[in-house]
Write a structure and sequence with these properties.
It contains 12 helices and 18 strands. With 404 residues, the chain is α+β, with helices and mostly antiparallel strands. The strands form 5 sheets. Strands 3-2-1-6-11 form a 5-stranded mixed sheet, sandwiched between helices. A 5-stranded mixed sheet has the order 14-13-12-17-18, sandwiched between helices.
Length: 404
Amino acid sequence: MRRIKINGIDVGTTKVCSIMATMDERDENKNLRIVGVGVAPSHGLEKALVTNVKEAKESIRQSVRRAEQMAGYKMESAYVGVTGRHINSVNNNGTVAITRNGQLVRSDDLKRAFKVAWSVKVPSERQLLHVIPRSFVVDGQEVNNPVGMHGFALNVEAHVVTCAITSVQNLTKCIMGIGIDINDLILEPLASAAAVLTEEEKQSGVMLADIGGGTTDIAVFKDGSIYHTSVLPVAGRQVSQDIATGLGLSFDLAEEMKKKYATVMPTDEKSDGDITIGENGHSVSSTELCNIVYARIEELLRLIVLELPRSDYTKFIPAGLVLTGGTANLPGIAELGQEIIRLPVRIGNPIERYGVSDVLSDPAYATSIGLLHWKTQNPSTMRAAPIQKQGLPHILDQVFRFFR
């Protein structure tokens, strides 16, 4: 049985993670076996955007090389995550009349409806990244696949995601510059959702917040499909910077202290002792450390809630909030989130892990794992052209392969 090779590269603000996996071609369950993992510190990136091509390229090269050494073969292509403040999204509708005899919906009608739904004005400096079908309605009745049904009117709702061309070109330049082809560019909160959310949560209504180093990626699902996506330019690095400023430490020491000792909601029984850290024996107050972390995380959680597209969010997302990403490892963050939004809050760990992947159960690797799952959950996805050549015809090909 032939094994398909699937690779993913997550280029983040603090780390680059490359994952190599295989999947049996005839496996109906589409189980992945991870055979290589490579993690390297990020350089030349700020808030998930490339600021120095040479440094970013070298960080990606180191990550890929480590994954290749573990897997025992070369990475030739990969699915690549995209995020940053330049991401915009909108839900748009398109309605067309079915005028032929018999009022039978054909793929051409679906194509016309999609074109209307995607007729959002995209400035010349921006590019379509995803156009994801949300729902199909024939004569007022919602259906799973309208092709072959009879009706007078077809309505399509789609989630349209755009990105800044230059930001994505800088990223693709780094990856293609080390000899790796790009299968597709994937919005990172969509990838994270593929790794940590259940189908029941997506159907009921749920919000995902992937709190990384430089950005917090947001995805809201309702009725089984994506409803809203956005990116906040605030995340774990801001917590470390607050610690560094508040306690008079270097950023590296503050980062180490956050990972080892910080909690979001310290208990009353916690002693107010000093913590000693670093080669020079820096001592800081445990209570001061936790107070700083609490203040920043509370602010971040409230910003996340403000990203919800509806004010009556308790009814809109009854499944609550799922926190993932490296910052979700802070003890007490889920409890604080539950206090703020008055809904269930859980930590999202990547699910369905196989092979040499025990380390990947950490929320910090949700996006990396999700890039692999995107391929198995979206079989219609085709190999991406360079970003400057992508556009409506390319995306149409992806969608209509599914309906064929």
